Amino acid sequence: SKLILHKNPLSPEAEAFKKLKFNIDILTKEFPKIIAVTSIIENEGKSTIVANLAIAYSLAGYKTLIIDGDLRKPSLHKIFETPNEHGFTELVTKNILKPYPSRFQNLFILPAGEDSLNVLKILDAFDLRKIRELLTENFDVVILDTPPVLPVAEVNTLADFAGHLLLVVRADYTPKKLLFEFETSIPENIRLIGFVLNFYKRAESHYRYYKYYHHETEKENNSLSNLLKKLKIVKED
Ligand SMILES: Nc1ncnc2c1ncn2[C@@H]1O[C@H](COP(=O)(O)OP(=O)(O)OP(=O)(O)O)[C@@H](O)[C@H]1O
Ligand SMILES: [Mg+2]
């Protein structure tokens, strides 16, 4: 099971997700909030982190919604074993918000939806403000899974919609050059709140959240690039 917080709530991995939630709350004080989670390339652990972070919020008593915004390769309906008949696609194209309950209290799942494949057409219909309103009227926390930044075009739209962006970096895997390119090309309207280092092998755990990086105030000395260079954990190209 990928649901660490459920399977083994007292493990170091579960603790790491509670800490991650805590740090996000320090950096994004307001509720309701929408957070998009992305990574540079595939398979860095986005969906796993979305799932467990959302469980952490729901355990803390917040009414939480997971949205599967990875319309090309949806996976959250599989992780949470819900249907995928209607979801994000219907929300964007028809303003219908009908999430599925999960087996966790306070936690709801909005999968990609069955007809999710025509991504660009779907996102064309995106009335950001209206949908944001609908979501924040109904939920305290919304966590949005997205496709990787490369090779896909829609991440900026999704991150702009969310307002907050969390970047997953997979140790020894994320290509350094692409990561640095991404960091220096983030549009002004998107707030990168920090990154989660995944697959970092230290002591007994793989799920170590390592260091939080605050993009706005520490840009100069503590940029993501500098930090990762120091840690020497990103893949050399
Ligand atoms: N810290 C970890 N330790 C071990 N396995 C992990 C860890 N994080 C994720 N995985 C596993 O790695 C695989 C990829 O994870 P996941 O599907 O969450 O990544 P993703 O970034 O959402 O991928 P995609 O780009 O395909 O959507 C999954 O099999 C998941 O169970
Ligand atoms: Mg995924």
UniProtKB/TrEMBL annotation:
This is Tyrosine-protein kinase family protein. Gene3D superfamilies: P-loop containing nucleotide triphosphate hydrolases. The lineage of its organism: Bacteria, Bacteria division WOR-3. InterPro entries: Bact_polysacc_biosynth/exp, CobQ/CobB/MinD/ParA_Nub-bd_dom, P-loop_NTPase, Wzc-like_C. CDD domains: BY-kinase (cd05387). The keyword rRNA-binding does not apply. Keywords: ATP-binding, Kinase, Nucleotide-binding, Transferase. The keyword Transferase applies. It comes from the Bacteria. One of its GO terms (molecular function) is kinase activity. Residues 35-224 form the CobQ/CobB/MinD/ParA nucleotide binding domain.
